[in-house]
Amino acid sequence: MTRRATRRRSGPRRPVRRRRPRPVVWLALGAGKVLLGIAPVVGAGVWLATAPVFDLELDIQIEEAERVSEEWVRSRLTPLEGRNLPLLSLEPAARRLDHEWIREAELVKRLPNELTVRVVEHEPVALFAAGDRAWVIDRDGRAIVPCERALDLCGGDLVRVSIESALAGDRLGAGPARNPGAGEVSSRDVPGEVLARTLKRALDVATEVRAFEWGRQVRAVEVISFGIVDDDYMLARTGRPATVLVRGSDLTAKASVFELLRNAITEHNDPEVVDLRFRDRIVLSMEAPGVGIATDTEGAPAAQDEAQAPS
Predict the structure, then answer these.
(1) Is residue 90 situated within a structural domain?
(2) What's the CATH number where 62 sits?
(3) Residues 292, 295, 301, 302, CA torsion sign
(4) Mean pLDDT of all residues in 76-102
(5) What whole-number distance in Å separates Cα of residue 301 and Cα of residue 41?
(6) Which residues contact 237 (CB under 8 A, 6 or more apart)?
(7) For residue 48, is pLDDT > 70?
(8) Torsion angle in degrees (nearest 10) through CA of 119, 60, 51, 31
(9) For residue 181, what pLDDT is reported?
């Protein structure tokens, strides 16, 4: 047997070079990891988009419905039935319920497949009169429909509210009131926000006087003057006295006084008009107020008869 002797070389060793994977290999490995990561997400998305368990069904709730029927709401939303609920966009669906009597439409998704629809109707509280036209308005003074499309309401017990007399005053210019339903509550000389505030306050006055027995006979509230601080109102009633003039700032106090003295006032001389705007007296008049109301030096209607009342 032959033995070979090996000699070890002295000195530093040469580094061993390792071959790096090619870029294509790196890309393939990275893509594989990405695919493995997103595959469950994609699978879940496909399942959400195609699983029959998410096919939409309607659950419709209408609060105090008189003008909007469940059949109408369902007919508007029927094309959505069977659509995938998780992928349904609610904003376009809500636009399908555009109706003049719908105040609020709320759509809520309830997984897996129920779309709950809650509809709230406008509550008609008064009629807004302007010229020879009138509109049904809600508690915020917003026009709902013109009277020709709601004859049952316009011929009923709703109070008529008007601001035309105030607009006709010289200090406010000659611009007439415009229909709030047309999108502009404005006149030539009065800012729209002032008119909106005045109309809303007139509605509040109509509600406030209904708390009194005599106020239940009020059929119309007309703003005869308005300002930054206070407004004056003419209340038209059935029976006698047919007209009551009040100032907004002390409506409750003066209305209480009138409630106490109503019988005495009526028996006094059966007046046509009772003016409660003075600080220390009640003014009675036998003439019905016209478009223009004659005033004395204090700015109140000229008195034809007076009955004392506590301030």
Answers:
(1) yes
(2) 3.10.20.310
(3) negative
(4) 90
(5) 79
(6) 214, 217, 218, 219, 243, 244
(7) no
(8) 10
(9) 33
pLDDT, averaged across the chain: 75
Strand stretches in 159-217, DSSP E: 159-162
CA distance 103 to 65: 12
What whole-number distance in Å separates Cα of residue 131 and Cα of residue 246? 23
Tell me which amino acid residue 145 is. V
Among residues 25, 30, 35, 83, the alpha carbon closest in space to that of 58 is found at 83
Residue 109 lies in a domain: yes
Q: Quick check: is 132 in a domain?
A: no
The tokens describing 150, both together, are: 């709601």
Q: Total structural domains in the chain? A: 1
In tens, the pLDDT along 117-153 reads 999 999 999 999 988 889 999 988 889 999 999 999 9
Give the Cα separation of 24 and 30 in Å (integer).
10
3-state secondary structure of 38: helix
Domain hosting residue 69, numbered range: 52-121
Q: Which residues contact 187 (CB under 8 A, 6 or more apart)?
A: 167, 172, 173, 175, 176, 177, 178, 195
In a domain, 193, yes or no: no
Region 84-113: what's the mean pLDDT? 90
20: pLDDT strictly greater than 90? no
Exposed/middle/buried for residue 122 (C-beta within 10 Å: 0-12, 13-18, 19+): buried
DSSP 3-state assignment of 142?
coil
**Tokens 């094309």 -> residue:** 79
Query: Is 296:303 a contact under the CB 8 Å cutoff?
Result: yes
Summarised one tens digit per residue, pLDDT across range 210-236 is 899 999 999 999 998 877 678 899 999
